[in-house]
Amino acid sequence: MAIEVGKEVCEVNGESGEATARGERIIAVAGEALVDLVPADVPGHFVAMPGGSPTNVAVGLVRLGAPVRLLARIGAGAMGTRVRNHLRHNDISLDHTIQAQEPTSLAIVDLDENGVAQYDFRIDGTADWQWTDAELTDALDGDVVALHTGSLAMTQQPGADALLRLIERARPAATISYDPNMRPQLMIHEQARSRVETVLSLADVVKVSSEDLAWLYPGRPAQDVLADWACRGPALVVVTLGGDGALAATTENRISVHRPGLPIDVVDTVGAGDAFSTGLLAGLHRRDLLGADRRKALRAMAEADLVQLLDEAALIAALTCTRRGADPPTTAQVSDFVDRARRLA
């Protein structure tokens, strides 16, 4: 199996997590920290795995050696304890998380014959959506060079508006990364599209799936939406196409590229999109392209660099699909895969 990857793919030095990254340029990640109930090998049984799109991104970044600050409201009870233990196990500091009194959100996962995930949520009155401005007062303290958010946390009130104000406050100093990660069963179409387009005008890096675009803009080709979004402010817009790879466009250099997917044996697709966002952010961090002071350089990214960045992100997502649940790879696991692929090429 021949896989072309960049020489720099996930060659990261240094320790991970904010606790060991003081003085480094931190990526803040804001949003839900919930529990996924993922089908087990025994039919009718489930495995409780901490997740939530932003939390998955934070865990993935730490595993790739990036300094991370997680902004999350973590629920009470046994499920909340499970989430906290998961974060500690992955060397993520709880210093900027809220120990909430509300219950933990649940996502019940159903898989089709191809391992593609569908979700059924239990989120009424749960912890993730209750953000206040006061809880986010110190969210950007220190050298925060990027803020990543999206998914349910950006649409579920009352906390969504507090997170929107956090984005507005972060933008003068930080790169804004956004993944809409639509959940139609929990969203009103027009309200969700309005919120997406509002955040789009503030974002520098946007990753969106073709399924999200099909729901947001029925009947409109993904390539057309990609071109439209690239003209609305972001430096980089990426549309993931599942097994068909990804499309990407930049604004300043007017680059538009398509990269193929990787042939893999899929266990499930839980967390695949989050892993792609992880790969993008880790790659931009490694290339010193995060932070408001690097916005011009990000916009001027060359096509060869963009191709390499997309291939790195696709590899991170593909490896996540080879195991159950949102379980993104470490730097060592990525390097081992690349080494094996090169030996077999």
UniProtKB/TrEMBL annotation:
InterPro entries: Carboh/pur_kinase_PfkB_CS, PfkB_Carbo_kinase, PfkB_dom, Ribo/fructo_kinase, Ribokinase-like
Parts of the chain that traverse the membrane: none
Major enzyme class: transferase
Enzyme Commission identifier(s): 2.7.1.-
Domain of life: Bacteria
Sequence ranges assigned to domain Carbohydrate kinase PfkB in this UniProt record: 28-329
GO MF, one example: kinase activity
One Pfam family from the record: PfkB
Keyword set, alphabetical order: ATP-binding, Kinase, Nucleotide-binding, Transferase
Xref: SUPFAM superfamilies: Ribokinase-like
Family: Belongs to the carbohydrate kinase PfkB family.
Name assigned to this protein: Carbohydrate kinase
Species of the source: Nocardia jiangxiensis
